[in-house]
Amino acid sequence: MTVKILRLGHRPSRDKRVTTHLLLAARALGASGAIYTGVKDDQLEKRIQGINLSWGGCFEISFAKDWSKEIKSWKKHGKVVHLTMYGLSIKKVIEEIRRDESDKLIIVGGAKVPGEVFNIADWNVSITSQPHSEVSALAIFLHELFDGNELNLTFEKARLRIVPQGQGKKVIESQDNV
Amino acid sequence: MTVKILRLGHRPSRDKRVTTHLLLAARALGASGAIYTGVKDDQLEKRIQGINLSWGGCFEISFAKDWSKEIKSWKKHGKVVHLTMYGLSIKKVIEEIRRDESDKLIIVGGAKVPGEVFNIADWNVSITSQPHSEVSALAIFLHELFDGNELNLTFEKARLRIVPQGQGKKVIESQDNV
Description:
The structure is a homodimer.
Chain A: E1 3-10, H1 12-28, E2 33-38, H2 42-55, E3 60-63, H3 67-74, E4 78-89, H4 90-99, E5 103-108, H5 115-120, E6 123-126, H6 134-145, E7 160-162, E8 171-173
Parallel strand pairs in A: 1-2, 1-5, 2-3, 4-5, 4-6
Antiparallel strand pairs in A: 7-8
Helix pairs in contact in A: 1-2, 1-6
């Protein structure tokens, strides 16, 4: 199952850090890439590509002008999950989503999500019905979708690797990719 | 078990939205409050208190000048978890942390975390050894700590309540608290 994120309505001035956090969470937690709409942001793309170079893997990032086209094209082969505080509890739907083996596009809203997104999604899913963050919502969703296995991922061709420690920091720099 | 967050090194101009997301995630996912250090930010505090008023509960937010004092005072009755990409995998330590019934202070770094924090923490815990976000790291940590039960929390005295829907939005406004 391929999992991609669709981030709606990115505004470089306002959302720079939150979108970066969102995409880094998507990458670290097993999504294969992200598409974002709103305003094209070359710095954002470079930042994510820089993380791939240092920390490995091949997380893709691309900009799309028209979210509606992206969703329609995705629905030809896969299904769509929309994360929203108004949706059904993840506890109620995660088993069904996990069992469905088709590719998944996870829609994560920006400022205002068009009503059409609620209709076009195969699942509107809430991670609590309280306001919090698209970053925390996506994290818990991916953690549940991959059933915790995303915590064991290895990222190929990493220049830097952390060796987990009880105290302090240990980072190994690969000579192969320098 | 009482769980509080200690957010280190908040900078209002740069971290405004990320700290807001972090504290809202802490609130929605069952922490009882947060202490933050760095620069005092009245707007941040008002924003969180406004969320309590609309969405219920009594999540506390307070500013502290000296993180070291806060940790030392916490350690008189509780234990300290530091979330860091350099720490031991959550999979390895979460059972032990769950079993330990003392109150928990969850330290979440800002720009630069002083080395002393790694030494003073009872557990240095990583949510993957990849760079992502303090918001996603905290979300998965709380979700694991509370074993998913945080998704069923109710927030007392809420003015607004969402009724989860497969499609669309349904919000009930309480007349009691208007």
